[in-house]
Amino acid sequence: MKDTNIAATAGATLVTRALEHESHVDWFLTGRPVTVSSAAETAREVFGQAADFLAANHIQVLHEKVYGLRIERDRILAERRSALANRGLDPSVLVTFLEGVPADGGRFGGVQIQGAAPRNRGEQLIHTDRHWTRNPRIDSGPGLQLRAEARNQRRQSLPIDLAVT
Predict the structure, then answer these.
(1) Rounded to an integer, what distance in angstroms lies between the CA atom of residue 127 and that of residue 70?
(2) End-to-end CA distance of the chain
(3) SS3 of 152, please?
(4) Which residue segments constitute the domains of the chain, with CATH numbers given?
(5) Which of 152, 143, 73 is nearest to 108 (CA)?
(6) Which residue spans within the chain are E strands per DSSP?
(7) What is the torsional sign of CA 155, 159, 162, 165?
(8) pLDDT tens, 92-129?
(9) N or C: which end of the chain has fewer CB within 10 A?
(10) Are 79 and 43 in contact (CB under 8 A)?
(11) Model pTM?
């Protein structure tokens, strides 16, 4: 596991960790607001910082969780879409929105992102998703292939296998 990197701005903190493999790097990002202000302002700051990091490191999002109040959901997700689109990233990746009151009393609690990036920048990540979503998405091209195995009937997690194709 790479060292934890913490980037802070006036309105947000982004903690990143990387797990290096031979052909790719697994990334784990946690972004949270530092100040309590409107959900839109704090979401703009957090998602802007996360999107900058994703774009700079060529990370494809595999799983994303967003935390906040249900009444702020549309505003928070609009800021997410805007931050990703403004940096050339795909804003249509599925996100899980978890409703609840953030510990700091604000309206937006933050985001957790799990992603992967090919070790060699010239390669392309191929994501074959057969089980995690209702509508499978297949990106084609040379590079890495993610073969995701679903949970078995006992709901035990099976490993995710990323390999160079």
Answers:
(1) 30
(2) 24
(3) coil
(4) 5-121 (3.30.1330)
(5) 73
(6) 5-8, 12-20, 24-33, 60-68, 96-99, 108-118, 124-128, 143-147, 161-164
(7) negative
(8) 888 999 998 888 778 999 999 999 998 877 776 655 54
(9) N
(10) yes
(11) 0.73
